[in-house]
Amino acid sequence: MKYLDEFGDPELARRLLDEIHAVTTRPWAMMEICGGQTHSILRHGIDQLLPESIELIHGPGCPVCVTPLETIDKALAIAERPGVTFCSFGDMLRVPGSGRDLLSVKSAGADVRVVYSPLDALNLARENPDRQVVFFGIGFETTAPANAMTVHQAERLGIGNFSLLVSHVLVPPAIAAIMESPRCRVQAFLAAGHVCSVMGTSEYPPLAQRYRVPIVVTGFEPLDLLEGIRQTVVLLEAGRHEVANAYPRAVPDAGNPAAIAMLGDVFEVTDRTWRGIGRIPRSGWRLSPRYREFDAEERFAVSDVRTREPAVCRSGEVLQGLIKPHECAAFGKQCTPRDPLGATMVSAEGACAAYFAYRRLDLARRS
Ligand code: SF4
């Protein structure tokens, strides 16, 4: 634990905070893209230690939260089929579809399993040739390489009873969509360090120039976040719309070339719908023609499932940073982690769940 402790060193944190206070001369609003960063910020109270003039806006980088309702309903429809073993990471099991979730389908008798890796699902397929084994492949550029490698392995080993329900999304088009919104208040971004450890930093300079925003690649521990915020404020104060890397111990500028090559082989870019946000052009991946036979959506013919979000849930505005979770009327009342209405309250990385877990119920009552 010594390594992690070092990145939470209170003395170093105080020094970074002092520097942030010293360089800040006016109000700034910056968005942390990743839900993991949001949780870390709230868990460590970083937002409360910053100058009052710095606002942290929580971004859409929670994979569970942005997976569209439609895709959850497709997962439910596939999981209920006889002969199907449906595999997923645990955090997807309680995400509500239109009225149900994977856990309730499992308790009604469907073979739904929690796995720790897509390769576990592939092994299940190999060991059970009479079953159709489906893995729920969601997430950003971080989870996609393992899913790509699993499909590649399935093809190489000829495991035809495996398929992937794909809902992968990409960060750079989401940044563009946020900046294009007329209600956007974001002046800078803390880019998600783990995404950049896969993809590198080359996609960000054009965005920084086009939208005139600094983008700082940032990690997840308290000192990582404070250093990312410090570098962001320095760039903002100087009026520099540049990309900086505040997480060099994990992020080489070129990313992970082997992972990028695998992604390019197995996936192709496509338009994707983001839950609560809507369709963003060229913002996700689907299986490339060579691997299309492993596409669960086509194999189980669920492409035409259509759904509607519950009207009361404002998770789309939360995900775009337009409101804070406690500004939703249902927060902490009809909607709690025990009884979630939207994915941002279910997911371990969701902003609503973070506000509920770390302190914001009181704040909601006061406001
Ligand atoms: S508090 Fe619940 S209902 Fe409100 S936006 Fe968050 S998830 Fe949706």
Automatic annotation (TrEMBL):
InterPro entries: Hyd_form_HypD, HypD_1, HypD_2_sf
Any one Gene Ontology BP term: protein maturation
One function term, GO molecular function aspect: iron ion binding
Keyword Aminoacyl-tRNA synthetase: no
Pfam families from the UniProt entry: HypD
UniProt keyword terms in alphabetical order: Iron, Metal-binding
Assigned protein family: Belongs to the HypD family.
Protein's UniProt name: Hydrogenase maturation protein HypD
Protein's organism: Actinoplanes regularis
